Amino acid sequence: MQRDQLADFLRRRRAAVRPAEVGLADGPRRRTTGLRREEVAMLAGMSVDYVVRLEQARSSRPSTQLLGALARALQLSDDERDHLFRLAGHEPSPAAGTARIARAGLVRMLGLLGDTPATVMSDVGEALAQNRMSTLLFGDQREFTGDRRYLAYRWFTEPGVRAIHPPEEQERHGRALVADLRAVAGRRPGDADVVRLVERLRTVSAEFRRLWDDHRVAVRRMDRKTLCHPRVGALLMDCETLVTPDLGQLLLVLTPADAETRERLELLAVLGVEQFAPADGGAGGEPPTEAGRPRAGREQDGPGRR
């Protein structure tokens, strides 16, 4: 562990992050352009004392979980995150497999998009980060565990998920999910995460087996869809999908396709989030239960982490 270098790196990266980039107010009395130690501690979910000891080269070696939390709080790039791990005496987690942490640049974009709903997803359909408007539309998609993390799994195993789409669009949406998963399986042959997900879906869903056996392949790019929201009604949305160079993460951006939808989204932004009873156990399309600023993915145990 290179304590002095680690301390210097953390201090400099903290000074480089503007509060607005992580959803914090930048008041007129702020003496520094970067984050305060208290703010880093809050964002990373650790004590202020521990942040102080890290920056003063007085701490014990931090765990990989703590380093992951610091990387998200400081909005580190992939290269910076790897450097952080090595300074602390850990090997960075491998790049192969399914992404579990949203790229720092994509998380920054969520904040910059403001009232435009946007979500960062892994290539197998796990939500890694959302901005506030995405949470207002879909609820917090990051609270799911196990197989329910994956949108395709919820779609084919939990009927209530489909309620957010009108009946006439549900078949098309299901086919798109399967075709996209087919494309991922082709890019990542033999990948344990993908193989296990497909096997479990084939076991529990006859509909998935039928669509999978059609062997249709398509990567999500642009789509127009109708979302049925319990507070503001039908929303006609254009969905643009931006992918990272390695195709491992996607930024899904939803924009209103007509003036009426734009007005309804503006109303939703004003109303915020109220408590709703989840339908059929709740999942991908369930009404939201809480609001929040852009949230980055959490460090998780298991293979394929990056």
What does this structure look like?
The protein folds into 2 domains: 3-87, lambda repressor-like DNA-binding domains (434 Repressor (Amino-terminal Domain), Orthogonal Bundle); 104-281, Beta-Lactamase, CATH 3.30.450.180. It is built from 12 helices and 5 strands. It has a 5-stranded antiparallel sheet, sandwiched between helices. The protein starts with a helix and ends in a 35-residue tail after the last helix. It has 306 residues and is α+β, with helices and mostly antiparallel strands. 42% of the residues lie in helices and 12% in strands. Strand 4 (233-243) and strand 5 form a beta hairpin. It comes from Pseudonocardia ammonioxydans. InterPro entries: Cro/C1-type_HTH, Lambda_DNA-bd_dom_sf, MLTR_LBD. Residues 34-81 form the HTH cro/C1-type domain.
Search tags:
single chain; 434 Repressor (Amino-terminal Domain); 42% helix; 2 domains; Helix-turn-helix domain-containing protein; alpha+beta; disordered C terminus; Beta-Lactamase; Lambda_DNA-bd_dom_sf
